[in-house]
Amino acid sequence: MRVRFIYSCLVALLLTLRAWAGDTYAASSALAEGRWVRISVEKNGIYKLTYAELRSMGFEDPAKVSVHGYGGWPLAEDFSEPYVDDLPSVPVWRGADYLLFYGKGTTKWEYDTQSRTFIHTNNPYSTAGYYFVTDATATNEAETVQNSTAAATRVTAYDDYLLHEQDLVSPSRSGRELFGEDFSSAQPRTITTFSSIPGITSADGKVTMRFISNVGSGTGRATLSIDRSELLSILIPANSDSHTSAIAGEQTVTWSGEKSEKPNVVVTYNALHSNVYLDYIRLQFQRTLKPYGAVTLFRSLASVDNASRFIVEGANENTLVFDVTDGDLRQMETSLSGSELSFTIPAGALREFALVQTNQSLPAPTLVGEVANQNLHGLEQQDMVIISPDALATQAERLAAAHREHDGLKVLVVSPQAIYNEFSSGTPDATAYRRFLKMFYDRSATAGTPPRFLLLFGDGIYDNRGVTSDVRGLNLSNMLLTYQSQASLDASSYVTDDYFALLEDGSGSRLETDKMCVGVGRFPVRTATEASQMVDKVLNYMENASEGRWKNNLTFVADDGSNADSYTTVHAEQADWLAEYIEENHPEFLTNKVYFDAYKRDNSGTYPDVHNRIASLLKSGQLLINYVGHGSTTAWSDEYVWTQSDIQQSTYTNLPVWVTATCDFTRFDAPATSAGESVFLNATSGGIALFTTTRVVYSSNNFSLNQALFANLFEKNNGVRRTLGEAMMETKRSLRDRNKLNFILIGDPALTMVYPEYQARVTAIDGQPVGEGETFSFKALARVTVEGEVLDANGALASGFSGSLYSTVLDSRDSITTLGNNIVGDSPRIFQYEDYPNTIYVGQDSVRGGKFSFSFMVPKDISYSGKEGKLNLYAADSSTGNEAQGSFLDFVVGGTADVAENDTIGPEIRQLYLNDTTFVEGGAVNATPYFVARVWDKSGVNMTGSSVGHDIMLIIDSLSTKSYNLNDTYSLVAGSENEGLVQFSIPELEPGIHTAEFKIWDILNNSTNYVFTFEVKEGLKPNLIELYATPNPARDKVDFYLSHNRPESELTVTVMVYDMTGRFLWSTEKSGSSELFKSYIVSWDLKDNGGRRVRPGIYLYRAAIRANGSKEATKANKLIVLGQ
Predict the structure, then answer these.
(1) Residue 4 has pLDDT above 60, yes or no
(2) Is residue 876 domain-resident?
């Protein structure tokens, strides 16, 4: 498929295509009242509607019917071009019992004066053009054009063209261009499209062919011959770019000499190469001016700037001529002499005519169906527009309602077809989305605020028409259009949602520099179930009910490079710049640096410890995770450190925002689901949103975007946090490169990250007030007391704040040099960075009346560096939902306390079990048991990790490959500095007897060991410990609680309800990850499976639970239902 935007010598649209001022729109759509029926046409031409057909459509008086619209040519993308608003009336010509109108199909032809060639443009969004029929408006009768008085040029032949083009395949699955027949077998093909051209003359014509091929070496050669005479040859050079799927070649030649009315056109390719496809062939020639069927479209280059007389052979009293140059229908005044018909025109631009034989069978448009009244033009200003397919609209409306209530936004949910009806003549066109948004944008100058957000509530596909083989079987009705680049074969090809946000006058032709005016996001959902799950995720996130220190956590992951970039350290350098930006400007956050080369690489060339570290961090909870490096649609990095399978199997519940500066990670417009989409589409885990990539991207440009994005995410705008969509919009407004077009927001653009908005600050250390320039020392074995307060968003003491406080004290920063796993020449590729490698203390205490205090003992295992450490704070008031964060940096770590406590006894293990407290030595467990140890120590547990051999360890079967460092899993019991929990989900074990050794140290380096055995049994069913319902009795709804022994496992839960006679009434089955030591909850609205509310009485409910394909565990109980 070829879409080109060139200078058109066709006249501007004179009547129906009136150019509206940028802020002028109909106050009400024509579709607001009356009966409207939608019809379609496939090709440019004259179409006939009989009065009988109009009556069958429900119109009582066909003489009052008019036609509206402008068909299927692609809309102008440049908003400096004139465009029509709403649905203009189309002139019609009426016969005795029928009407004729000129319909535009999906191929637009223009004459390029530079190449002297007719050029075609296909609509990349639709296979038909659409119009509307109504009797609700005044009729628009075709005018008659009088003959010109003088005509020196005699026209007896006209310029015609034929096109052969089949849209069958896209080698790169990107861009607008689709390609036709496969020539990889190097077999010649006869093109039958041109097998009959009656009336062709010997005048010079033109032949254009475009071909693509992926040539490994040498040169590819495509030839076209007509009647065994080679006319055209295209040479295609070898392709050395791995990101280019094929190279295109195009040639136009003059076609001279005598021409057969039945030409034999043959195309040949010379070698066995890949991705060898014909794009199209255009023939341009002259034909004798006479009717060739019921409708003949014609034009004459000889008439340009010349007063001309057109003479038509073979005419009769049934022959009509219409001028259709501007898309209207105007009857030409003609003279008939025998079988010769003539008409004259004055000098001027190229004109298009239609020769019609009314006594022959004329094409009829296809009936699509009646259109309900609608009036998008009459809407008030909106803050947010959600475009949703009808099948997903219920879920889109749920999200809209949440934004109305939670954020006070005016939100509109609208179907794509409703937009097409008023903004693209009912024809699918991506630019219609822009036009609709621009109406609100332009009206805001006088009618309120401009729109802020656009959410595309549906997946998309590169082949918007669904004509290629790998897209044809998909359900496109649940998808929204994508904006694809013209480039379709190499790394310059892109898909971007930015296009829909370009609303300024004159925008649309320079996407790299045009400015986004709204924040845009997309939900790549294809089914109502996916849509419901994603709305559930967003609503839960908006409620911000999941408190925890995870909101202070940011993770930065960096690739170690690849052979393609000579194993550069640039990925780590960029990730570290971002992390240090946070440390410098927002020390209230904790940064986790995961740089591949800082970890050992195993013999297979992968980084299992990096994988485990990412898994551990995601499980503990992250506000945001940022990846810089190589990637694909299925994984991060060449080493597949984090894969689509990992994403799909994730069960962590605190959802981060993902930033992925890597190639192709979220190629949402491919038929298959990408890894980035899987992050979002994971029903209960994954991520809440992604700033991510859809195509090949480049490191330096990625870094610029990453830097700008972090500034917009973490810096307030006039004291207000930017939403995700606003952050992306402002980021892209600051950049002027094409690379930014390959970044997309997957998620809700009106959503704001759940930053704690209050400040937690330290006021005193060991009773001494903190102050400017004051530095404290945290000495080994010293007891430190920290006092502080919580300030509200205005900086005043939050005296009403009471709740939990979480504190983390980090040892001083250290310089870390990566391992140099990659060696180029004789030089290992190493990178040096600063980090806080060791933790001194992690505690949980309380805040009362906005004040807090806690104490801890500094471990013996510290760095003794005398350098600055970091104290991080997070606080939450559950009663109000307010949260606070902060940090304290004015202390150094070093020295030893003058008086040390005397403690020679290791930690006491007060409780240790797998899965639940009923576990006994040698007990049976599932393959991924959950380990819990409750420990106590007089001085405190050592979790610093700064001294070899003093870590909290769990070792399975004495194997180094199954030895797990559990320092990060230790947490103090609230309010205690001596008692804490170690909790860890053991990776999958094989069936059989296993031995485990648990080892733990206190801060004075006294240790305790505990060895126990257990048996892994395949398919072991869970233990359904308790089943109950609340409220019971129930009046409006009831929640069933299932208490079990499979924390952090994938569970399938079934609940069934019966009446007391045993008659089945209702059931549901749900799957998802179980939260740590929390019951699984299933809700019921007291309606049976038919939607009828059950009667008051006593009912029996039964629950079943299974995990990872195990057998079911079941329990039953009774429920009382009260009358309403």
Answers:
(1) no
(2) yes
Q: Per residue in 869-894, pLDDT tens?
A: 999 999 999 999 999 999 999 999 99
Tell me what pLDDT residue 272 has. Answer: 87
Give the whole-angstrom CA distance, residue 664 versus residue 697: 8
Cβ atoms 975, 981 nearer than 8 A: no
Cα distance between residue 924 and residue 876, in whole Å: 39
Nearest to 263 by CA among 227, 229, 225: 227
Same domain as 777, residue 710: no
Q: Which helix (H) or strand (E) holds 398?
A: helix 393-407
Token look-up 């992690």 returns: 842
Nearest to residue 710, comparing CAs of 554, 571, 498?
554
126 and 230, same domain (yes or no): no
User: DSSP code of 484?
Assistant: B
Mean pLDDT on 430-453: 95
Please report the pLDDT score of residue 1074 as a whole number: 60
Q: Which two tokens stand for residue 133?
A: 């029929």
DSSP of 778-823, one letter per residue? EEET-EEEEEEEEE-TTSSB-TT--EEEEEEEEPPPEEEE-----E
Domain enclosing residue 1034, as ranges: 1024-1121
- Comparing 102-106, 138-142, 322-326, 1085-1089, the range with the smallest average pLDDT is 1085-1089
User: DSSP E strands: which ranges in 662-749?
Assistant: 689-693, 743-746
Q: Are 858 and 784 in contact (CB under 8 A)?
A: yes
Express the helix, strand and coil content of the chain in percent, nearest 5 each: 15, 40, 45
Q: Report the alpha-carbon angle 550-1008-913, nearest 5.
A: 60
**How many domains does the chain contain in total?**
6
Residues 869, 812: contact at Cβ < 8 Å?
yes
Give the H or E element holding residue 664. none
Amino acid of residue 984? F
Question: Which stretch of 368-372, 395-399, 1049-1053 has the lowest confidence by average pLDDT?
Answer: 1049-1053
Q: Are 954 and 966 in contact (CB under 8 A)?
A: yes
Spatial distance between the Cα atoms of 573 and 303, rounded to a whole number of angstroms: 66
CB atoms within 10 A of CB 718: 4
Contact 243, 489 (CB under 8 A): no
Q: Strand runs (DSSP E) across 919-986, as ranges? A: 924-925, 930-936, 953-956, 963-965, 970-972, 979-985
Distances (CA, A) of 1004 to 871, 944, 1000: 21, 12, 12
Cβ atoms of residues 915 and 1046 within 8 Å: yes
Check whether residue 295 and residue 263 sit in a common domain. no
